[in-house]
Every structure is written in C-alpha cells, then in structure tokens.
Specification:
The protein is mainly α and 157 residues long. The chain has a single domain (6-156), classed as Four Helix Bundle (Hemerythrin (Met), subunit A) (Up-down Bundle), CATH 1.20.120. The protein contains 6 helices and no strands. It has helices spanning 6-18, 20-31, 44-48, 54-91, 104-124, 132-156. One of its GO terms (cellular component) is membrane. It comes from Ampelomyces quisqualis. Keywords: Membrane, Transmembrane, Transmembrane helix.
Length: 157
C-alpha cells in the first residue's frame, strides 16, 4: 500500500475544523443556561435572543458567523489543494521537478494556522476598532490560496 496523500486528506480535515466554531457557539449558549433546540437548530438564533445576556448572544453570533465563513472558504481551499496536486503529479515525472514543487504541505499548514487565528479573532473580538485584525487574517488566508492556485497554474502552463 502506498503512503497517504495528506494534502488531499486536508480537505475533509478542513471541513471538520470548519464546524468547530458552531460547537463553540452552542457551548456559549449552554454556559448561559440556554438549551438550543436540536429539532430546529436554525431557529436557535432568533429564539435565544433576549433569553441570554446580550454579550453572550453576540459571541454566539460571531462564532456562528465564523463557522459560515469557514464553509464559504472551503471551495477556495479545496481548489488550491486539488490544483496543486494536479500540478505536482502531472509535471514531476521526467521534468526534474521536486515532488512538492508548489510547496503544498507548507500551504496546508499555513492555511490551517491562519484560519485558526481568524476563528479566534472572529469570536473574541467584539470591539469594532480591533475588527480589522480579523479582516486582515481573512485577506491573508485568501491570499495564500490565490497564490497557491497561481503556483499550480504556472507549473501547468
């Protein structure tokens, strides 16, 4: 059996990573004594409002928004990974290129690090004046993915 393609496995790993803010959001409400209705989970936001302190509700909203943003970023991440795998596999043999010509492993590690920092910033920063930190992390992560796709495109020609 050949070794696993860990960058490819990073795609479902990112999906699992992406739902962590949702689990945290639920725990934020539970810590305030509110029990979300799992039979109608999408109604939690409107039904919890006014039943927990405002600061708790806003943190809940930010955690849910972080989860939504993670899911919105998933196609960009998946395309970057798949394009890089394609570029590396199609050009490595016979062209003298190194197996990690697109630095895919580095990209995957950097993506997860930046997205983790983004999630923490999204959930924890409630002050508008500090919110550009979150936006900067979003730009950095998106830029990493765009650059990764560019590197793959350059190899593929």
């Amino acid at each position: 059996m050949s070794s696993l393609n860990y960058p490819l496995l990073a795609i479902p790993a990112y999906y699992m990573f992406s739902i962590l803010p949702h689990a945290y959001a639920q725990s934020v409400l539970a810590s305030a004594g509110y029990k979300p209705n799992n039979a109608n989970p999408r109604a939690t936001a409107e039904s919890a409002k006014g039943k927990v302190p405002d600061a708790v509700f806003k943190k809940y909203q930010r955690a849910e928004a972080a989860q939504y943003n993670n899911m919105e970023q998933m196609p960009l991440f998946a395309v970057a990974v798949l394009a890089s795998i394609l570029a590396e596999r199609s050009t490595a043999t016979g062209l003298g290129r190194e197996p990690d010509a697109t630095s895919l492993s580095t990209f995957v590690g950097a993506w997860f690090a930046v997205r983790a920092a983004y999630n923490v910033a999204y959930v924890q920063i409630a002050d508008h004046a500090k919110s550009p930190i979150r936006s900067g992390l979003w730009v950095l992560g998106s830029g990493l993915a765009f650059y990764q796709i560019y590197k793959a495109a350059a190899i593929l020609g």
